Amino acid sequence: MATTKQVMEGEEPVSPIAQLFSLPGLDVFNIVTIGCKTEGDPSTVVEGLKNTLINHPRFSSILVTGHGERKGKPKWIPTKVNVEEHVVVPEIDPNIENPDEFLEDYTSNMALSPMDMSKPLWEFHLLKLKTSHAKSIAVARFHHSLGDGMSLMSLLLACTRKTCDPEALPTFVSPTKSKAKNACWLLVAWLWFILRLMFHTCVEVIKALVHICFAGDTAAYLMGKPGVTLSTNKFIHRIISLDDVKKVKNALNMTVNDVLFGMVQAGLSRYLNQRYDLETTLKTRKTLHGVVFFNLRPNKDIEDLANMMAKGSKCRWGNSIGYVLIPLWLKSEDDILEYVRQAKTTMDRKKLSLEPLFSSGLLKLTMKVFGLTVSYKITRT
Asked: Residue 227: what pLDDT?
């Protein structure tokens, strides 16, 4: 009786976003690929996970979704974790012909394979595979109901230490703070910021609602036909120089994310125009949109993220995300940097609006009023 009471006290409700991510047919995973300079020792990895990862309740609990045979309210149920079952060391031919392609196929299969819901929803795969960039590979898979990207980044930070001081967290260079300005100037700047925030919020939210309810995107180019499966999806690994990205970032006075978003737009635009002559088509038809997720946590310092797993932390664990609709710049540009400039212009408007908060609240309201089925259909479209 005492054991049952302890389990009931340890149970936690499942957030609405986590419920959505765990719906049948909408399983979403975070796949993390880590290249190592040396071959990993499974016993060392298991011991490290016992001392770090499973200390967090989410990684030592089973998700009961309320679907299938186990009816009821969705909840997290604490359980005893056998870490060895979550560390996979597959047998790989040491003389494999193309290790880079093997890794791409391996991670693609992980993304499309369901997880065992009778265990905590995470696993590590240690691949004795020498690629063109690493001597061995570690691939981690986390179900998205465990948390978003920021949560997993905090987990990574909390599990690492300095080589010179095994007890200290890694440190990062803090951005320089601007000097204090005149109080009157600060008041004017604050009022101007509020006006711009209200204006951009109204404009971006109305545009998003019109697009979702009435306009929609040009069909067929990126969306599969009804009933199509995901079996043809594949991960393609490409490594780019962060130094090169920073050079563009500093030259054009933008963020790393702006540069990466511009690169994605450039690649997507060239691919679609070469394959479909999309630029001519879009002159008479609708545009294409993408979705970008925003972190909604107010605390973004490295210490807050690293301490997110601690009790009483100011930074929330879980799926604290909103999303915005991004019109994709798909015109053929001779100047490749034009894609990056357009990305910055678009993202600056989105950052200066409350669209991510609105979208998050709208999704939660839809789930509460209409249920998971309607939310699932909206998400799939």
From this structure: 53
* Sheet with strand 75-78: strands edge to edge: 12-13, 75-78, 61-64
Give the Cβ contact number of residue 202 at 10 Å: 12
The closest alpha carbon to 104, from 81, 127, 122, belongs to 127
Mean pLDDT, rounded, for 315-336? 81
Cα 218–chain centre separation: 25
Q: How far, in Å, CA of 132 to CA of 70, rounded? A: 46
Q: Which of these, 47, 127, 58, lies nearest to 88 by C-alpha position?
A: 127
Q: What is the pLDDT of residue 71?
A: 61
133, 144, 200, 237: the catalytic one is 144
210: burial class by Cβ within 10 Å (0-12, 13-18, 19+)? Answer: exposed
Compute the CA torsion angle 349, 350, 352, 358 (nearest 10 deg).
140
H-run or E-run covering 3:
helix 2-10
Mean pLDDT, residues 15-23:
81
Q: How far apart are CA 289 and CA 265, in angstroms?
A: 11
Decide if 89 contacts 122 (C-beta within 8 A): no
CA-closest candidate to residue 298, choices 343, 368, 356: 356
73-88 per-position pLDDT tens digit: 788 899 999 999 999 9
pLDDT in tens, 261-286: 999 888 888 887 777 765 555 554 55
First to last CA, the chain: 47
Residue 1 above 50 pLDDT?
no
Residue from 203, 359, 221, 197 nearest 291 by CA: 359
**Of 166, 165, 170, 115, which is closest to residue 140 (Cα–Cα)?**
115
144 has catalytic annotation: yes
156's tokens: 């990574």
